[in-house]
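Researcher: Please predict.
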Amino acid sequence: MRLKDRVAIVTGGASGIGAASALAMAREGARVLVVDLNEAGAKKTVEQIEKAGGQAAATRADVTSAADNQGIVEQAVARWGRLDIFYANAGVPQWKTDVEDVEEKVFDQIFAVNVKGVWLAAKYALPVMKRQRRGVFLITASTSAIRPRPGGQTYAASKGAVVVLAKALALETAPHGVRVVAIAPVATHTPMLPTFMNKREVDEEGLRAYVATVPLGRLNEPPDIAATAVFLASDDAAMITGTCIEVDGGRCI
């Protein structure tokens, strides 16, 4: 078990990449605090972990809140005595919109969740890891940070911001034995996928158009990202920090 006895926090853990990552980390021996605004969904993820013999707990939190970020870090440490992994995965998408038609409140929400949420997580999680002199802080970025699609400029900017934030935090924490890595998925089969396609639900036409942009010929499934997160959180990735790992089937080539 690559993460045996380690303690992890996963935000956005009620579904999609977050749920798959929480399950994968638990299978590898981690004790996982599953965090989401959707507490019922987080509890379902915990039920799946426990059914498979793992250890987990669920809690509701708003990643844009300093108090909530501080609270989840304190909860994990109080429950299990340490914090080894924080996966800042929670995020919100953008409907395809030209910049002149994007409302300011939409910009504010995207940056509050996708950027401020990650920054707040780092603010409270990294001091614990620095004191321990070990830990891994992961961030869900996006291929849009590297190769944006038309109409997604606000989302792309938010993900570009956290790619650079990962580099800055990696420099700050390296002397303390802490690693920081961003993960850039191509479009993934999650509840957010229809929004990226500018549709209320995924249809064959939209799916074909997206798949055609990926050289390997398919989109990500959540376990693709979860497997990457487990690897990066493990000692197998001991020399990886400050980079952005593209899990994109060749999309960014």
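Model: The beta strands are 7-11, 31-36, 55-60, 85-88, 135-140, 178-185, 244-247.
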